[in-house]
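Exam prep: given the inputs below (a chain plus zinc ion), describe the expected output before reading on.
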Amino acid sequence: MLILRCPVCGVDACETELAPGGEAHLERFGPGSSDEAFEGYLFVRANPKGVHLERWRHAMGCGKWFLAARDTATMEVLGTYGAQTEAPPADIQSKIEEASR
Ligand SMILES: [Zn+2]
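Solution:
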C-alpha cells in the first residue's frame, strides 16, 4: 500500500485517502502557443520506470494538493513537498540522484 505524508497537515495518508493528479512540474501552454506545444501539454506525459514526480491531493484529509517523488519500480517514496514549488527541495533532490544511479 502506498503511504504518502501530506506536507500540509503532516498526516501519513494511505492511497485510499489520496487522489492522484498526474505528472508534476508540467510547463503550461495556452492560447498563442504552437499546436505542437499545446498538444504536448494536454496529452504527452512521462511514464518512467524509476523516479517520477507526481501531483497528489489529500482528498480525504485537508484537501490540499502536494507533490511527491516516488520510484515507480520499487514504490519507494523519496519525499513529499509543497505544490507551490518549481522543483523538489535539496534533500529530496539528493535522494532522487542516489536512486537514479
Ligand atoms: Zn493533508
